[in-house]
Amino acid sequence: MKQLANFIDLEKLSPQGYQWQSEFHLSQFPRLAELLTQTATTETNFTCEINKISGIYWLEFSVKAPLETQCQRCLQPMEFLLDEQGKLALLEDKAQASLLQEEDWLLLDDVVEMVKHERRLPILTMIEDELLLGLPLVPKHDYHDENCVPVEILADDEEEPIEEKNNPFAILAELKEK
């Protein structure tokens, strides 16, 4: 199983660009792994490509992975298919943004790390960011899923009845009547 490079040196990027295709464990992405209930056996199909066309670096990737996360309605594990395809322009300066139509873009100065005169692109971190954006904001089963029993319903069955306390305003009303 291949490991995706943490960084790519943009100065050494060949004219053919950088291509990577493999299966790997999602545990390589620690921030993503924190949100999942199971990552050890989850392998994902992944492709990544970086090219420089007309002075603009293009990062393209696709990911297809079955994930297991926690339903926020019933707090039980739920399956979710992450099927993301992204294309991101990496610009030298904001003036290049006028050359784009509706593509997403980032300034290289905002993401590139300089190490001994090398401009290193943190590819692993950037792809993890895009994957996190592909997750549902609040993961939950479908509303009519028979496996999903909301926590409130489960809690009502297990709790003992709570004694009703006197409403302080009802007590004042009684005093006022006397």
Characterization of this structure:
- With 178 residues, the protein is α+β, with helices and mostly antiparallel strands.
- Helices cover 22% and strands 35% of the residues.
- It has helices at residues 30-35, 108-111, 123-134, 151-158, 168-177, and strands at residues 8-9, 18-25, 43-53, 56-70, 77-91, 104-107, 113-115, 118-121.
- Strands 2-3-4-5-6 form a five-stranded mixed sheet. Strands 1-8-7 form a three-stranded antiparallel sheet.
- The longest helix has 12 residues, at 123-134.
Using brief descriptors, characterize the structure shown.
5-stranded mixed sheet, alpha+beta, 178 residues, 5 helices, 3-stranded antiparallel sheet, 35% strand
Task: Please give a quick description of this structure.
Helix content is 22%, strand content 35%. It is α+β, with helices and mostly antiparallel strands and 178 residues long.
Instruction: State the distance separating the first and last CA atoms.
Output: 82 Å
Count of individual beta strands: 8
Please tally the helical runs, counting DSSP H or I stretches of 4 or more residues.
5
Largest beta sheet, briefly?
5 strands, mixed
Poorly predicted spans: none
Strand content: 25-35%
